[in-house]
Amino acid sequence: MTAMLRVVNRVFLGLVGLVLLVLGGSVLAVGLGAPAPSWWIHHSRHDVLLSDAERTRWRDAGWWWPVVIAVLAVLMLLALWWLVAVLRRRRLAEVLVDTGDGEGALLRGRALENALTEEAARIDGVDRAHAHLRGRRSAPEARVRLALEPNVDPGTVLHDLTTGALTHARTSAGLASLPAEVRLRGVRHHAERVS
Predict the structure, then answer these.
(1) Could you give the CA distance from residue 68 to residue 70 in angstroms, rounded to a whole number?
(2) Of 45, 51, 110, 159, which sits 20 to 30 A from 127 (CA to CA)?
(3) pTM for the predicted model, two decimal places
């Protein structure tokens, strides 16, 4: 998840949790005998959520139940989609390194990401760099984002990245290949004054 999606996710979850906590707590308080406010939907501990009249109001309308079922199905699909999106691990936790003796060693994915990021940031013309590993631990893939300084040739930076940082990461981890997706963007700069 990107940082913005993480923030939206946390704010949304916090608001939903707060609403559910307030509603659940107030229903519990009224159920235990606390006086209910005049605007509250329940007025005593023996009040029901839906009365017979409210529950059977739309029973004879042919469109009512298909609409209710469709809305609930869409809500369930959205909730499942959100759950899968939250639980899916996007970052590679470890990389399997071939040690040559038939055994293997595990390298932390963050360590390889940090080394790749630091070496990419040292390339001439790179203002900021960020590397991220995805894929399987036996066949990782790198996603590298580079912020380039003004007046830098992107081709040269890309060549330096592939022959330097990516090659070093691939050979140090003992990988046959390390496919990479590289995103380049320029850093905004202020206009220069000419005198």
Answers:
(1) 6
(2) 110
(3) 0.54
Confidence of residue 73 (pLDDT cuts 50, 70, 90): very high
Residue 166 to residues 31, 131, 155, 171, Cα–Cα distance (Å): 63, 10, 15, 9
Length of the chain: 195
| Integer Cα distance of 138 and 175 in angstroms | 8
Other residues' Cβ atoms within 10 Å of the Cβ of residue 157: 20
Residue 43: per-residue pLDDT: 73
